From TrEMBL:
Cross-referenced InterPro entries: Ankyrin_rpt, Ankyrin_rpt-contain_sf, PGG_dom
Gene3D superfamilies: Ankyrin repeat-containing domain
Membrane-spanning segments: none
Record protein name field: PGG domain-containing protein
Classification of source organism: Eukaryota, Viridiplantae, Streptophyta, Embryophyta, Tracheophyta
Residue span of region Disordered: 286-305
All copies of domain PGG, residue ranges: 262-319
Length: 320
């Protein structure tokens, strides 16, 4: 009996690797409770993990519809199907998961790293904006090292991702996360200082510049200790006022501002255009809408056919 059970799940795994929906339903018809087995296992390599890793988009969506709980399971390496789809750049599967269950943006994998943390580290501005739109509270998720997605973006030198996260935090009145500390007591401002990221420090208005880490250092102390060449500049620098950072809505009022301010506004517009362009190429449907694809099952480029549904103004929302 035990060997028969093993054989059943070996067959199910082979079906998942092939992405064969017909054979999936044949197995379900033969063994109606075949998917119930996974309800009682805390960590396992489910057929949804296999499909997500192999890029079997249609099969993954079919299986998740039959058994949504599979999307919440972690494999023996501590990853969910959503994590595996991201790691293997199967973007259409990621969007399919997102359309079915937007809370997967916050699913914690190994190290309590969420999909939002992962795309912040990669600097994928397009997916980052989609994830924030789908699951706004995900911006507050912390890794096992007490890092927010903003910490991760700055540590990974992903400036565009940082700007998207910063704009989002301000739009949804979550600016307090900018002062949250990681396990070493470092705020985002500390990290930017330790990496000489002046652009990041320029944009971090309204933060507590006097905050100290576990070593008792402020960001300015770090710059001075490391004899950073940017210390004199930052020491006498006043962070941009919030209305300048969010100046996209007031471009006409600041048309005659400094060249630096103009360059910054242009940078924001470039980010917005990038999001809109990438969204158009990917045929994004906002979470809660329908998800569609009409090209081959396996993909690596994330481009699908479809009509653009994100407006330019909505793109600005993410980075303003």
């Amino acid at each position: 009996m035990a060997s028969q059970s093993v054989n059943i799940y070996e067959r199910l795994n082979m079906v998942a690797q092939d992405g064969d929906i017909e054979r999936l339903y044949e197995l379900v018809a033969e063994y109606p409770n075949i998917l119930e087995h996974f309800d009682h296992v805390s960590f396992c390599e489910t057929p949804l993990h296999i499909a997500a890793e192999k890029g079997k988009t249609h099969f993954a969506m079919e299986l998740m519809t039959l058994k949504p709980l599979l999307a919440l399971k972690l494999n023996f390496s501590g990853f969910s199907p959503m994590h595996l789809a991201l790691q293997n750049n199967h973007i259409r599967i990621v969007r399919g998961f997102l359309a079915i269950d937007s809370s997967l943006v916050s699913i914690k994998g190994r190290g309590r790293i969420t999909p939002l943390h992962y795309v912040a580290q990669l600097g994928n501005v397009e997916l980052l904006s989609e994830f924030l739109f789908a699951c706004p509270s995900s911006v507050e998720d912390l890794t096992i090292k007490c890092e927010t997605a903003v910490h991760i973006a700055v540590k990974s030198h992903q400036f565009m991702a940082f700007k998207v996260l910063l704009g989002w935090a301000r739009r949804v009145n979550k600016e307090e996360i900018l002062d949250w500390k990681d396990e070493d007591g470092n705020t985002v401002f500390h990290i930017a200082a330790s990496m000489n990221q002046t652009e990041v420090m320029d944009l971090l208005s309204m933060v507590n510049v006097k905050a100290k880490n576990l070593d008792g250092e402020t960001a300015m102390d770090i710059l001075q200790t490391h004899k950073s060449p940017i210390f004199p500049k930052v020491k006498n620098h006043r962070p941009l006022r919030k209305n300048k950072l969010l100046g996209v809505n007031n471009l006409s009022k600041t048309r005659h501002g400094s060249q630096e301010s103009s360059d910054f506004r242009n940078a924001i517009l470039v980010v917005a255009v990038l999001i809109v362009t990438a969204t158009y190429q990917a045929g994004l449907s906002p979470p809660g809408g329908y998800w569609e694809e009409n090209s081959p099952d396996s993909d690596n480029d994330g481009h699908t056919a479809g009509q653009m549904t994100m407006s330019f103004n909505l793109a600005l929302f993410f980075i303003s």
